[in-house]
Amino acid sequence: MKIAIASGKGGTGKTTVAVNFALSIENVQLFDCDVEEPNCHLFLGFDLEKVEDINILTPVVDKTKCDFCGKCSEFCQYNAIAVLPEDVLVFPALCHGCGGCAMVCPKDAIIYENRSIGIIEKSKGGNIEFYRGVINIGEVMASPVIKALKKHVDESKTAIFDAPPGTACSVISSVQGADYCILVTESTPFGFHDLLLALDVLRKLEIPFGIIINRCDIGDDRVEKYCNKEGIPILMKIPHDRKIARLYSEGIPFVNRMPEWNVKFVQLLDKIQAQI
User: What torsion, rounded to 10 degrees, do the Cα atoms 53, 54, 59, 64 define?
Assistant: First the structure.
């Protein structure tokens, strides 16, 4: 089973839930899909090893063949190629590697070369097999790294995807194909607003979902009222607890020191399985 953990905004506790959830169940893989700022490893303490480089194809123009007709530039929806009267400019960071520019070139003047945009790393400890993607600094396309990361899913295990915040392409790449998505939120005006955006995405993707309310005793009850009205399951509430906060600040998953929460996360998996 593949379970994504997402939210509409950052700082709601996605990684806290993902790491503690993974530590509480058996036969599990944890994937850190927040490739721009992965941080699950900070709480696991594992030694990471490189698995692979992630490359995308980038066009290279042979200017001895090119007649500067501009068809490649007209085709490219990402403005990765600009054709001047006597020159062609390629902007690799904008290229999505679709291959279309070479297909429309009447002079066969475009070939492709691999360009590294990130890496996949892994580690293993206890009951967790951990993978993370890391995008190169300055790169803007996280989705190819996330898609490559998810190719390491073992269908015989429970896979947990710790998604990036927000509702952009990288989030869609992270949750797509999941059997279930946990949305972690906080009951504040900002948290509720962005929760509604995330719910809209999951409804369009037709992925079953439930809610975890983190720091449930701050803010107000607007999230809970909305969930009750819409029939959205509230899977768990995590209080604004000083001990949990202190452990988090020290990089310690709270299930390691508060065993009663280990039981609650096992029950969380049971709730998800029952819904599916």
Answer: 10
Q: Could you give the CA distance from residue 62 to residue 53 in angstroms, rounded to a whole number?
A: 27
- Six-digit token string for 188: 């504040």
Which among 177, 166, 201, 220 has a CA at the least distance from the CA of 11? 166
Q: What are 72-86's pLDDT values in tens digits?
A: 999 999 999 999 999
Q: pLDDT by residue (tens digit) across 12-32?
A: 999 999 999 999 999 999 999
Name the residue type at position 12. T
**Burial group, residue 206, by CB count within 10 angstroms (0-12, 13-18, 19+):** exposed
Closest by Cα among 189, 179, 187 to 157: 179
- Rounded Cα–Cα distance for residues 54 and 56 (Å): 7
Q: Is the pLDDT of residue 8 over 90?
A: no
Cα distance between residue 195 and residue 211, in whole Å: 9
CA gap 54, 114 in Å, rounded: 9
Q: Is 263 exposed, middle or buried (0-12, 13-18, 19+ CB in 10 A)?
A: exposed
State how far the alpha carbon of 30 is from the alpha carbons of 16, 100, 157, in Å.
12, 35, 10
pLDDT in tens, 114-129: 999 999 999 998 889 9
Q: Which residues contact 59 (CB under 8 A, 6 or more apart)?
A: 72, 80, 81, 90, 95, 101, 102, 110, 111, 112
Give the Cα-Cα-Cα angle 9, 152, 185 (nearest 5 degrees): 15
Residues 248/254, Cβ–Cβ less than 8 Å: yes
Rounded distance between C-alpha atoms, residue 55 and residue 235, angstroms = 39
Is 102 within 8 Å of 113 (Cβ atoms)? no
Q: Which amino acid is at 14?
A: K
Tokens of 252: 């310690």
